[in-house]
Structure formats: structure tokens, C-alpha cells
Amino acid sequence: MRTRLIKVVKPTVILLTIGFIYIIIHNVTGFGLFCPINKFTGLYCPGCGVSRMFLELSRLNFGAAFSSNCVVFCLLPIFLGFLVYHCCRYIRCGDRSMKRWENILCIVCIVVLLAFAVVRNLFPIDILVP
Fold first, then answer.
1. What is the CA radius of gyration of the chain?
2. Are 32 and 26 within 8 A, CB to CB?
3. What pTM was computed for the model?
4. What span, in angstroms and rounded, lies between the C-alpha atoms of 89 and 59?
5. Is residue 37 within 8 Å of 21, Cβ to Cβ?
6. Which of 80, 103, 114, 116 lies in disulfide reach of 71, CB 3.0 to 4.6 Å?
7. 3-state secondary structure 9-58
8. What does the alpha-carbon distance between residue 58 and residue 127 come to, in Å, rounded to a whole number?
9. Segments making up each domain of the chain, as ranges
10. Interhelix angle for 2-29 vs 70-93, to 10°?
11. Amino acid 51: pLDDT
């Protein structure tokens, strides 16, 4: 169980450290990431605005975070809950397999994100554009 805990905690700490460093770099220099899909095609992918969303969440500015990417903002509690549940089950039981309901949840989230990408490019409403 301890080795499984380390396998979960180590990448989590690395990812949070990278995010923290990015926040510091952005706040000091103003340098931000850009979306290569948007840069080269002019289209918005489902993830456009996510880095801005997380920067605004780090400042506890929920309104600006929502307007950066409203669908990912709304799906974030589902993602986090799923991730915590899956990691806890892995640490406790060593079970990495996904249950049927987890697969359905992932498929629904992917369909919602793809539909969001299509809608935000066909109908450039202010709330959909990052």
C-alpha cells in the first residue's frame, strides 16, 4: 500500500510544483502559454483558455475563471472527484481498472468537450470565446 501511495503522491507533487512555478513565472513576467491549434488554425479547441482559467482560480477569481473556459470550469469538480476516487481506490486496493460507470462518465465528458469545441467555433458568443 505504501508503494502505491508513493506512486500517486510523487507525480501529484511534481504536477503541482510545475503549476506553481508557472503561476510565479506568469505573475512575474506576464508570459503565458498559447494554444497551438488556435495559433495555426484560428479555431478554438476545447482546452483553449484552461491555463488562464487555472491562473484565475489561483487568484480565487471565479468569474474570470468561468469566462476563460466555462465548460472545463463546470466539469472540473467532476474531474477532481473522479481523480480522487480513482486514486483512493488504487491506493487502497491496487485496482487500476475502470468500472463501467467510469468509462461512461469519461465518454460523456469527452462528448461534452467536443460539442463545446464545435459550438464555440460555429457561434462565437462572448461567453464561449476565451
1. 17
2. yes
3. 0.82
4. 31
5. no
6. 116
7. HHHHHHHHHHHHHHHHHHHHHCCCCCCHHHHHHCCCCCCCCHHHHHHHHH
8. 21
9. 2-122
10. 150
11. 87
